[in-house]
Amino acid sequence: MGFSVRGCDVLVTGAAMGMGRLFALRAAKEGARSVILWDIDSAKLAIVAEEIRALAVIAKPMQVDVSDADAVANAARSVLDECGGLDFLINNAGVVRGKPFWEHDVDADIKFTMNINAVAPMVITRQFIRAMMAQDGKSRRILNIASAAATVSNPRMSVYASSKWAVLGWSDSLRLELEQVGDSLLKVTTFCPTYVGTGMFAGARGPLLTPIITPEAAVDAAWRAMIAGKPIKYMPWTTTLGTVLKGLLPVRAWDFVAGRVFGVYRSMDHFTGRADPPD
To answer: What is the rounded CA–CA span in Å between residue 149 and residue 172?
Structure first.
């Protein structure tokens, strides 16, 4: 039998809804020992915790504002004291602000987005990584949710894209650092999907040949890549195609292909987002 989550301790951020909830339930269904749930929405978190307990798995809901480094440190200390370590870390929490850059408020939009999407995964991982590295002889995984926006620029996504470019660069660099120190059992996977239909990107339109991905399909692809220890997973295939074409074509030629042919540059024209707390 191959490597799995069975008997492991799993932490999922943004676990109260959307992909985070599905990751947590996937861990429980596949036999995790415990699933630690972090989210700022305590009411929805409690519901997910009950769903996990119904699967006869330990659920540990914790109300945590991942943009608050002190809150993260306190919560991480509690997890390590209780579990003694962590086997799986899924940095899923994220937010989006979709509008022209000059309309972004510095605190409510720019700092808010960067803190949750880019800084928080680094701060959270920093709290756990030494303990994860110390578990010699045991396979462990870190999954960081980035975005196709980390590979292709897009109007009305300047701050969101910058946050996800940061995640991709940091996450893959961390993977290389672990390989350099010879930790072959702690693997880092970066997941880069296009629009996922959780409600987070309500109003956005998928580019040519790129339908909105269902949350179930996205979680399944990310999960399989994480278990396999795959460095980067792009989804769907058009994300890989776009990354290759952008690297090969001159800027203006790529702008024509992305904007006029595939419709990437118009995909956020009718974006509304959702009023719910972060995914």
So the answer is: 16
CA-nearest of 261, 163, 254, 160 to 208 is 261
Domain 9-266, CATH 3.40.50.300 — does that match?
Answer: no
Contact 75, 50 (CB under 8 A): no
The pLDDT tens digits of the residues spanning 14-31 come to: 999 999 999 999 999 999
Tell me: the pLDDT tens digits for 183-242? 999 999 999 999 999 999 999 999 999 999 999 999 999 999 999 999 999 999 999 999
Selection from 27, 19, 15 nearest residue 66 by Cα: 15
Sign of the four-CA dihedral 87, 192, 214, 163 = positive
Can you tell me the distance from the alpha carbon of 138 to that of 132, in angstroms, rounded to the nearest whole number? 9
Domain boundaries, the chain: 9-266
